[in-house]
Design goal:
There is one protein chain. The chain is built from 50 helices and 35 strands. The chain is of the alpha/beta class. An 8-stranded mixed sheet has the order 4-3-5-2-6-7-1-8, with helices on both faces. A hairpin with a 4-residue loop joins strand 15 and strand 16. The longest helix is centred in the last third of the chain and has 29 residues.
């Protein structure tokens, strides 16, 4: 009806009623009820005629003359077909007396008295016509379906009925829970009209136990039994199943076992395949229809005689906890079971086979939960807020929704920005309500305008509002997948909609309608759903223009991936997820989910995704996904983000306190470790950090004058603490903090703010300067400089000292800095004395390390130490030795240096030695001077040889072609005098001039270098000797028996011959002339000495062979200690170079030593116990020498006392095991111990 015109009564033709319809028989009763009551509930089964005849009864009552009779249907198809049927019965055309309006079609005129429409259309009209004044009668059909729209309509009508007493409301329903409708409308009368049905025989069968396979086998058996006539006359069968997969698997099983017409029926099926179910003209014998619960009430499958009901269905349920729309398989209610039973018995008597027990049926709930109790209520809440209907809790719903679902609806709207946290409608929410789509989709459309992708989002949003037009027939899945593959996008399923739309629009404009239909069929696209997609797109585009948004006529060529997905995220913030492992995702609110296998992203899952929907079937799946950058989430709805700031820290460069920020959305971390300014977020904490880490720690860029003054004072006192090893001189940080805290303003939490405050208050800077008294916790006294000097002087050298009080650190204690070139001159023991301020404390700790028996005689330790230190003066003498002597004098105890357990002392009681290069760069540091000297021996030479001074170092010398080789080489470096000792060093085929740190080391190397140079100068003689020596069968036999190789022995023999002939152990040449004279004087003697040595070796090796033979004959495992001792003795006697390095007079004793070993072995069996005692004695006497040899290279070539001790040991062996052979000199244990004292004195006098 057009507004602004006076209402005119419509002309109503004569009304007739089909006599065969049950409603026609009771129309007078129905008419009276309508006339006498504002609300009437009419119940009737399918076929009763209630849908088509009630509007005619209302017309006959005079309704619809000026206003209209509104008649709602839950589906568009039903609205169109019912309108056509009523129009036919009233002999008019749709659009005249009887019209209809569905989503994209409006067949209503001024003359329309009966208006068929979907319940969604009536809901939309409520926004313009709050009291629905366009209608005098409203028929709410199929109310038993209890959809969200129906429940909302029934509640709204109850609200407005008192304000519209003229309005008649007729609620029609199947015979399901009629009393609830009646109670809702204040006990409205109920009229029940039976349908045209036949009796149904119901059988309860025991369920199987082995899951899906067993159920499938049971249904196949029942179908075959029906086909065989076991349950009566053969007829069509309707089997209810939970889902598409179950239908496909059962269809395959039935086709293998039966020759029947198997027809699937579910919502996603193509239109052509659905039509096969309803077209009886194409039937091929008995039909078996496999359907989901869509066949319970929504549609009537014709010709059904048998129903097989497993008693389960996939029910959509929304979880307010996980925010997931679940689709679990559940047992159906009694009402649903009866609805299924009613699908047979329409054409003749039917049979219903229930695959569960009757007891199970009786225990099931009477009715299925209405949709309002198991879905998200965001759209209902938005609609109510827009209409100003108040709180959801106060709205008169037929069944009030769970309060938790209501709260969840508000939360979703808050996520979308449609409501405030207080539940008030925002400007965005008002705009969303004006868009005819789900709130999520509406939010995407509004965000698209801001992200310059409105055309693409209109395509995607309208696609998400319909059923997927891409068909996938069960028998042609591979072909359909190939046909749809062209639309896939490498990163997003959403972009596939854009690709499909672009392709379809190109074809639509190029092809005729008939050609387009064929194309869709060929490429597995539903033509009707594609048309519906375009219709929604058009409707959305119009709604956008009404709000001032102007989508372009065509899609842009350039892809705006980022903008599109940010717009999508605006409506799908709760549907983001992050990849974890094994293709599992962590979604918002700690949901675990997977990409749906049919997605283009399933094979290569992105790190982050957004999903069009998240549903739970066999597992939780994300459907319709696209890859996203989590950073895109940050700007969509900042109020939803949780900000956590951690690790605040002072940043001197910027003069601010910075912190890391972690941003999360619904438990997912979308951004982490982004540095942000912490000051405005936590001013007090930031100010404290500025004081503690900036001002007190001195980590401050461009320090003000007061801070420089304070830092200088602090450094002076810290140096005092390091020297005295005390931490009680400088006031602690808390004192400094309180000083600054009392004087700085509260808002000074950045360097800039502090600087600005100082500029405004110039006098305040003086008040921020600390005094020495304020910084002192205690006065250290005036003797600190003497006790802890800055340098250490020795002879003509000064060593810089530094102090650190850092327990456990490398440089803790006192450090002395030494240039690497001076390491050879460093006094061996001076650093043991540390500095005066630490010497007393070190000595006290040494006393505490003594064994208890000796320690208890030195109490009180501090007093004894003070008395001992009176007589001691620091110098290059061993502290442990002189301190032991001093305590022995004043205490009743005898001490030696071995009594001290110096290892137990803390590191800071030993000087830390810093070795630096000529530029002062630290090379190494440690507390073991000897180890550092050894480490840098090569570096010392290199440091000297690469200096600016002329260097003697040379390589590749094969003859003495230089003048004099100085015995010392001196120069200055780093202000100190450096001494090095040149020598010839053996290189095998040549010699080199090297500089050595110690004279004795140079002498040993020079001996080897001179020997090599002599051999090179007499190469022909060496060649002759190498050829002739140790030849013949006799030598071959003794060499084999002694297990020695000829060539090493010959080379050693030649070295020994030259050493003895040239007298190299007596004197060494250092000039060319000395070398020439040495060579000339000894050349003729070399052959004689070689022959003498060969003869000596003949005797020695023969006896050695006998010894080896006797050792081999010893029983295995017997006399093991003796065997080991003899083997060690032989290794010592026959060490590499033994002929060259053994003095000639001792080398001549080798045959006697071998006889002594042979004699020992011959007597061993009878004197083993005595032999063991001798072995223990020898090992005890040899042990100190072996230790000294490990510490001092070349000791037996340098130390006469050590050489004497070594061969006295060998003579003692002869005395113990073969006394009959006699000894060269008198030996005993006591004589050896006295000789070792001489060795020790030599070692002390020669520390290097």
């Amino acid at each position: 009806m057009k507004t602004g015109q006076a209402p005119q009564e419509r002309l109503i033709p004569e009304i007739e009623y089909p006599a065969e319809l049950p409603v026609a028989e009771r129309r007078e009763e129905i008419a009276r009820a309508i006339r006498d009551h504002q609300v009437v509930v009419i119940a009737g089964e399918t076929g009763s005629g209630k849908t088509t005849q009630l509007p005619k009864i209302c017309l006959e009552l005079g309704r619809g003359r000026q206003q209209r009779i509104g008649h709602t249907q839950p589906r568009r198809l039903a609205a169109r077909t019912v309108a056509q049927r009523i129009a036919d019965e009233l002999h008019t055309r749709p659009g005249d007396l009887v019209g209809y309006q569905v989503r994209f079609t409006d067949k209503v005129s001024d003359s329309t008295a009966i208006k068929l429409m979907t319940d969604g259309i009536l809901l939309a009209e409520m926004q313009r016509d709050r009291l629905l004044k366009a209608y005098d009668t409203l028929i709410i059909d199929e109310a038993h379906e209890r959809s969200l729209n129906i429940d909302f309509l029934l509640g709204y009508l109850k609200r407005i009925l008192p304000r519209r007493p003229d309005l008649k409301v007729i609620v029609t329903s199947a015979t399901i829970d009629l009393e609830s409708f009646s109670r809702h409308f204040d006990d409205a009368p109920i009229i029940e009209v039976s349908g045209r049905t036949y009796p149904v025989d119901t059988h309860y069968l025991d369920p199987v136990d082995d899951g899906d396979d067993g159920l499938r086998s049971q249904i196949v058996s029942l179908v075959r039994a029906i086909d065989a006539g076991q349950y009566g006359k053969r007829g069509d069968v309707l089997v209810f199943l939970p889902g598409e997969r179950d239908i496909r698997e059962l269809a395959r099983a039935l086709r293998r076992k039966c020759e029947l017409d198997i027809l699937p029926l579910y919502a996603r099926l193509s239109q052509a395949e659905q039509n096969r179910v309803f077209d009886l003209s194409r039937r091929r014998g008995v039909r078996v229809v496999l359907a989901t619960n869509v066949a319970e009430t929504s549609i009537t499958v014709p010709g059904i005689r048998y129903v097989i009901d497993p008693g389960e269905a996939r029910i959509s349920r929304y979880s307010y906890r996980t925010k997931v729309q679940r689709l679990p398989i559940e047992p159906i209610s009694q009402a649903s079971a009866n609805q299924r039973q009613g699908r047979c018995g329409r054409v003749e008597a039917g049979v219903c086979l229930r695959l569960y027990s009757e007891t199970d049926f009786q225990q099931r709930p009477a009715y299925t939960d209405p949709e309002i109790r198991r879905t998200n209520l965001a759209s209902v809440v938005l609609q109510m807020l827009t209409l100003g209907l108040g709180e959801v809790e106060n709205f008169p719903f037929l069944d009030p929704p769970d309060a938790r679902l209501v709260r969840d609806g508000y939360k979703l709207l808050e996520e979308l920005g449609a409501v405030t946290p207080a539940g008030k409608l925002t400007a965005v929410g008002k705009r969303m309500a004006r868009l005819p789509v789900d709130p999520r989709l509406a939010r995407m459309v509004l965000a698209a305008q801001e992200n310059h992708c409105l055309p693409e989002i209109l395509v995607i949003a309208s696609a998400l509002a319909i059923q997927d037009p891409r068909e996938r027939p069960a028998e042609k899945q591979q072909q359909s997948d190939q046909a749809h593959a062209r639309f896939r996008h490498p990163r997003s399923d959403f972009m596939a909609w854009v690709n499909l739309w672009r392709y379809y629009e190109e074809q639509r404009q190029a092809l005729s309608q008939n050609q387009l239909r064929k194309l869709c069929k060929r490429e597995f696209l539903s033509y009707l759903r594609m048309r519906e997609w375009r219709d929604i797109h058009t409707q959305l585009s119009i709604a956008c223009r009404q709000q001032g948004m102007r989508p372009g006529p065509e899609l842009p060529e350039e892809e705006n991936y980022r903008g599109i997905h940010i717009a999508l995220l605006s409506g799908l913030l709760g549907n983001i997820a992050q990849l974890q492992e094994a293709r599992e995702y962590l979604g918002s609110r700690n949901r675990k989910l997977f990409i749906f296998p049919g997605s283009s992203q399933a094979r290569k899952p992105p790190k982050w995704l957004v999903a069009a929907e998240i549903v739970e079937t066999s597992r939780v799946y994300a459907r319709g996904v696209g890859a996203i950058d989590p950073q895109w989430v940050l700007g969509i709805n900042p109020s939803l983000l949780k900000h956590h700031h951690y690790q605040p820290r002072w940043q001197a460069r910027s003069g601010r306190v910075m912190a890391y920020e972690r941003v999360s959305l619904y438990g997912l971390t979308v951004s982490d470790k982004r540095s942000v300014h912490f000051g405005p977020l936590a001013p007090s904490e930031s100010r404290e950090l500025l004081i503690r880490e900036g001002l007190i720690a001195g980590n401050y860029r461009q320090a003000p004058a007061f801070l420089k003054h304070n830092q200088r004072l602090v450094r002076e006192l810290e140096e005092l603490e390091s020297r005295t090893r005390r931490r009680d001189i400088l006031a602690d940080d808390q004192v400094l903090f309180e000083f600054y805290d009392q004087r700085l303003p509260d808002d000074a939490y950045t360097a800039g703010r502090l600087q600005a405050w100082l500029k405004r208050h110039p006098d305040a800077a003086e008040g921020l300067k600390l005094s020495r008294e304020a910084l002192l916790a205690r006065d250290p006294g005036g003797e600190v400089g003497e006790q802890f000097p800055d340098e250490l002087q020795w002879e003509d050298m000064r060593f810089k000292l530094s102090y650190r009080f850092e327990p456990g650190k490398t440089a803790d204690g006192v450090s002395v800095t030494i240039p690497v070139g001076l390491l050879n001159r460093v006094p061996r023991y001076l650093f043991d004395w540390l500095v005066p301020g630490l010497l007393r404390e070190k000595c006290i700790q040494l006393v505490k390390s003594l064994p208890k028996e000796k320690r208890k005689r030195l109490v009180p330790a501090p007093d004894k130490v003070d008395r001992a230190l009176v007589d001691l003066q620091p110098g290059n003498v061993e502290l442990l030795a002189v301190f032991a002597e001093a305590l022995s004098r004043i205490g009743d105890v005898k001490l030696s240096r071995e009594d001290w357990d110096a290892v137990r002392l803390d590191d800071y009681y030993r000087m830390n030695i810093r070795v630096v290069d000529a530029n002062g760069k630290l090379l190494e540091q440690g507390r073991d001077l000897d180890a550092l000297v050894r480490q840098f021996r090569g570096e010392n030479r290199q440091d000297i040889s690469t200096g600016k001074q002329h260097s003697l170092a040379r390589e590749g010398i094969t003859r003495w072609d230089f003048g004099e080789l100085p015995k010392e080489w001196r120069f200055r470096q780093a202000g100190q005098s450096i001494v090095a000792w040149p020598a010839l060093a053996d290189r095998g085929d040549s010699v080199a001039i090297e500089l050595f740190d110690y004279a004795h080391e140079a002498a040993l190397q020079h001996r080897g270098g001179v020997l090599r140079l002599l051999r090179l100068a007499n190469s022909q003689q060496v060649k002759f000797l190498r050829k002739e020596l140790l030849r013949g069968n006799e030598f071959n036999l003794v060499l084999a028996g002694s297990s020695l190789e000829r060539l090493p022995l010959v080379e050693d023999l030649i070295d020994a011959a030259y050493t003895q002939a040239m007298g190299l152990d007596v004197t060494l040449p250092y000039t060319r002339e000395e070398f020439r004279q040495l060579e000339q004087s000894g050349r003729g003697e070399v052959i004689n000495r070689a022959n003498e040595l060969e003869a000596l070796q003949r005797n020695t090796l023969g006896l050695l062979a006998e010894v080896r033979h006797k050792l081999a004959e010893m029983p295995a495992g017997k006399w093991a200690d003796t065997r080991l001792d003899i083997e060690a003795q032989l290794r010592g006697l026959l060490a590499p170079g033994f002929q060259r390095d053994t003095p000639a007079d001792w080398l001549g004793q080798y045959p006697r030593y071998m006889k002594a070993v042979r004699h020992r072995l011959e007597r061993l069996s009878g004197q083993y116990a005595k032999d063991q005692g001798h072995t223990v004695l020898l090992q005890a006497l040899a042990e100190p020498l072996l230790g000294a040899l490990d510490q001092r290279d070349g000791l037996l070539l340098r130390s006469a006392p050590a050489i004497e001790y070594r061969w006295m040991l060998e003579e003692l062996r002869v005395s113990l095991f073969a006394q009959n052979l006699g000894t060269r000199k008198a030996v005993s244990r006591k004589r050896l111990e006295e000789q070792w004292q001489a060795v020790q004195r030599w070692l002390e006098e020669n520390p290097h």
